[in-house]
Design brief:
With 420 residues, the protein is of the alpha/beta class. Helices cover 37% and strands 22% of the residues.
């Protein structure tokens, strides 16, 4: 006998004997069994039949539990993960979806780890984010940037099934974002919040064993050890979490996020408050996740971090301002320029610079400094040098101007930052 919907009503206890309820049906049967046992005790009083009646209830309950129990093994112990880049150190397996059928739109985006279409979340009259659409490719590190109050964390919580969107649709880890798929989505992803939320009176290993239990992992010790090895904390496994620095707690939080070997990992400000050495270790871990094929959705305020780690970035300020690779965003927002420095100011820079083929405009940046807007920096730079030398100028330097991700960010968002 199996429940018709495929979800077991009971699962065998990890410690001790018997079964425990795993669904609402299991809890109803348990409540009925308890009520029958109490009724038998009340009805038979001190009669010898009281024991017989109670044992009969217990036997009936055990029989129903055995017949309606099922293989509710965790995600980590089922069919092999599809990612060929999975690391043997923390190799895990994913379960094939048994919930709502993926729609045609989801099938079209099966190569995407996350696909968001016109997603909006409101809290009463306040709009957290509105009409957001983007796609995160499988295996990429996707940066999600924006000022405080822009809606970044709310977006993560929405895609992580912690809160429901007001409107719009999304596909996360291959499943449409809906209430029916919430449990299965959570099995396939992990979320590391800015504050890890560890139990300070438990050791590092005990914290991870506890969370492994919540994932339903059997024989969690090897998985806990592998996760600690991945974040270089195996030697601190017995230390109380409360004795660790903030940086080490962040690393424990990362280890917790690795326990179920997610196909999509949401990291919300993972290097917040870390010193440069600890932050670099987190960066190396994220690079390792990329090599294993794990999709990383990274929210951060550190623009240099996003520029170094992310394949693509999205900039959000309630609405989505832009999505793309950093170099694409630079070219989209800024014209290409050359920075020219001469030993002395040019006596007549206008006629000289405007006569150079490929120079579209120029401006002065102080004595001996000039910015030239050009069509092709590499092609125009030699012509600029020849023209200046021919005019008797001492050329100190000619270089292409490189705009950083910070320049892109400030161009799109400015310095206006709201409060959370």
């Amino acid at each position: 006998m199996r429940p018709s919907h495929g979800q077991p009503w009971f699962v065998r206890r990890r410690v001790g004997f018997g079964w425990r309820p795993a669904s609402w049906q299991g809890w109803v049967i348990t409540a009925v069994a308890v009520a029958l046992a109490v009724a038998a005790i009340a009805a038979f009083g001190r009669s010898p039949f009281r024991t017989v009646a109670v044992l009969a209830v217990v036997a009936l309950y055990a029989g129903v539990a055995a017949l309606t129990s099922g293989d509710r093994r965790p995600v980590l112990e089922r069919e092999p993960a599809t990612s060929a880049a999975a690391s043997p150190a923390v190799a895990v397996e994913v379960v094939a979806p048994t919930v709502a059928t993926v729609s045609a739109a989801a099938a079209e985006t099966r190569e995407a780890a996350i696909s968001v279409e016109h997603l909006t979340k409101r809290f009463g009259d306040r709009v957290a984010f509105a009409d957001v659409s983007f796609t995160v490719r499988a295996g990429e590190v996707f940066g999600f940037l924006g000022p405080n109050g822009a809606g970044k964390t709310t977006t993560v919580r929405t895609l992580g099934t912690l809160i429901a969107p007001t409107s719009g649709s999304a596909v996360v880890a291959g499943l449409p974002l809906c209430a029916e798929n919430a449990q299965e989505i959570r099995r396939r992803i992990s979320i590391m919040p800015e504050v890890p939320g560890l139990y300070l009176r438990l050791s590092v290993a005990e914290n991870l064993e506890y969370f492994a239990g919540l994932y339903g992992l059997r024989d969690s010790a090897p998985r806990v050890h592998a996760a600690l090895e991945a974040v270089n904390l195996a030697e601190r496994a017995r230390d109380l979490a409360g004795t660790l620095s903030k940086g080490l707690r962040q690393r424990v939080g990362l280890a917790r996020a690795l326990l179920n070997d997610p196909s999509v990992m949401f990291l919300d400000e993972p290097t917040s408050g870390l010193d440069p050495v600890a932050a670099r270790e987190v960066h190396e871990l994220i690079d390792g996740l990329r090599r294993r094929g794990t999709t990383v959705f990274l929210t951060t305020h550190r623009l240099e971090e996003a520029e170094r780690l992310c394949d693509r970035v999205a900039i959000l300020n309630t609405t989505l301002r832009t999505v793309g690779r950093t170099d694409e965003l630079r070219q989209r927002l800024f014209r290409r320029t050359l920075a020219v420095t001469t030993g002395a100011p040019l006596p007549s820079p206008g006629p000289l610079l405007e006569a150079i083929d490929g120079v579209e405009a120029w401006s002065s940046d102080g004595p001996g400094g000039y910015t030239l807007t050009v069509s092709d920096p590499r092609g125009v730079a030699p012509a600029v040098v020849r023209a200046l030398v021919s005019a008797g100028a001492d050329v100190v330097s000619v270089s292409e101007t490189h705009h950083s991700l910070e320049d892109v960010y400030l161009e799109l968002v400015g310095s206006r930052e709201g409060g959370e």
